[in-house]
Design a protein that fits this description.
By secondary structure, the protein is α/β, with parallel strands linked by helices. Helix content is 38%, strand content 14%. Strands 1, 2, 3, 4, 5, 6, 7 and 8 form an eight-stranded mixed beta sheet that branches.
Length: 280
């Protein structure tokens, strides 16, 4: 019997995307290597590492190491400060979206991550949003790190990324969980949705930052739901990460712990769909 081919789409959601690691580890444990990957925002970051040949366990170790040491993390973040106060307060007022996301990626991505798509071991599609074209941009060739940066360029936080004269922002604005672009590339397409939504105490006014990120999550959730209605994935996984904020990267261990049930859920679904895996 022919073994079905599997493709994997990892969605955006900021720190919530750390839960993608569980999915990768289960695929490794079952001996499944996807024939194609797609990722948006944090999903693109995780998918790139996996496409480059890192195991799920190796990605877990790297993420935990990166965000475990608070002092080292603050030191890295200090390098991202605006080049000057003049720049920070330009355009007639406080300039919020001046952080260079490409510099962020240079600091936080694994140092041995390939520079271009062609060096990856698994084909990868990175989703960003063409700002002026008002549509999604599917990046599959060229500079890998720039593509990932563009996919994660959250509006009002990071400056847009320009690739081949195209102004790009966060892929979550047009395709938060990009399973639909993998249709036809495999027998089974797995979608991992970590968008979630804003949570808090009813009647309590959220902070401006929470409103900004939460509003983006509401938009992303609406888009993801609509896309699933139009083009359902074969398998949908939704890790329990809604209690975490999109920028809660210092809570990496807590995110992994809270979403650990993802492992059993995916393993159960896969062994039902693929009986030959039951003995693994």
């Amino acid at each position: 019997m022919k073994t079905p081919k599997i493709a994997l789409a990892l969605g955006g959601g900021g720190a919530r995307g750390i839960a993608h690691i569980h999915v990768l580890e289960v695929l490794d444990e079952l001996g499944i290597q996807p024939v194609a990957l797609a990722g948006t925002s944090m999903g693109a970051v995780i998918a790139a590492g996996y496409a480059a040949g890192m195991s799920g366990a190796a990605i877990r170790d790297y993420v935990l190491e990166t965000f475990h040491h608070r002092k080292e993390l603050l030191g890295k973040l200090w390098k991202l400060r605006p080049e000057s106060l003049k720049t920070f307060f330009s355009d007639g007022g406080l300039r919020l979206g001046d952080i260079n996301i490409e510099r962020v990626m240079e600091i936080f991505l694994p140092p041995d991550l390939p520079n271009d798509f062609d060096s990856l071991k698994i084909p990868l599609a990175v989703v960003a949003t063409d700002y002026y074209g008002q549509k999604q941009a599917i990046l599959t060739h060229g500079r890998l790190r720039s593509a990932i940066a563009a996919s994660a360029a959250i509006p009002a936080l990071f400056r847009p990324v320009i690739i081949d004269d195209t102004v790009l922002v966060d892929g979550g604005m047009t395709n938060p969980t990009p399973h639909d672009i993998l249709v036809g590339s495999a027998d089974i397409v797995i979608a991992v949705d970590v968008v979630g939504g804003p949570e808090g105490t009813p009647g309590e006014r959220p902070s401006q930052m929470d409103v900004l990120i939460g509003s983006i999550q509401l938009l992303m959730g609406t888009i993801a739901t609509t896309k699933r209605e139009m083009t359902p994935s074969d398998i949908l996984i939704e890790p329990a990460v809604s209690q975490f904020r999109a920028l809660d990267f210092l809570k990496t261990e807590a995110i992994l712990e809270a979403s650990v049930k993802t492992r059993d859920d995916l393993r159960s679904i896969l062994t039902q769909r693929l009986p030959h895996l039951a003995e693994r």
